[in-house]
From TrEMBL:
Coiled-coil ranges per UniProt: none
The entry's keywords: Transferase
Residue span, 4'-phosphopantetheinyl transferase domain: 146-206
Family: Belongs to the P-Pant transferase superfamily. Gsp/Sfp/HetI/AcpT family.
Single biological process term from Gene Ontology: lysine biosynthetic process via aminoadipic acid
Region (Disordered): 1-41
Protein name as catalogued: 4-phosphopantetheinyl transferase
Amino acid sequence: MTATGQQPHPRDQEAPDASQARAPDGTPWPIGAGSHEDRAGRPELWLVRVGHPTDEDLSVLDATERARATALRRPQDRDLYITAHTTLRRVLGRRLDTAPAALAFVREPCPHCGGEHGRPVLAGSPVHFSLSHAGRHALIGVCDRPVGVDIELVPKAELVTDVARALHGDEQQELALLGPESGPVAFARCWARKEAVLKGTGEGLGGGGVATLLVGTGAEPHPVPGWRLADIPEAPGGYAAAYAVRD
């Protein structure tokens, strides 16, 4: 997905090797802010490196998810999709004491048009979640209030030049002051922050928020009214990640 529908997304590139994995491929490990016991607005965060899905993994998915996985042409894309979505179901199932395959997902109304393509939620549950994947990793956030997470590959410098034009004007100016070594890292954390907030609100990338939402490119996120936005320093090398939780 891109900011304009035409520009390349920073996620669409080769993933670096990630030797920092703390669990076997396909097995999630907890990172960062919160835990299952700490639900005072701090998300439970999980990171998983893509594995090799089995028939058992496929059986956890519903028919729509299996169809989407089958439609992906590249094996690495299918493996990442299946790993991400089966892990999401297992994390949520553990939290809710429910069989992963029994979970039902629906969409909230779009905050712009009211259509049924807004933020994904669990039917009949107060638990909120968010899922993101890039390269060889998926990131999951679970919370007692609306949450958004995003993980991004640090892009090549030339891609930053192309896509940065879609950002807030202040962020474009910040990036223009950086060199080819620090610019891609700053861009990646900016994009991860932006997508985390836009996923949390349900707006997504298509609502114009990429250009109007100011999150900053520096070491600390720019405050976003109504949201707690933070970087995730435990992201693997070559990636940037962030989460946003509604106050």
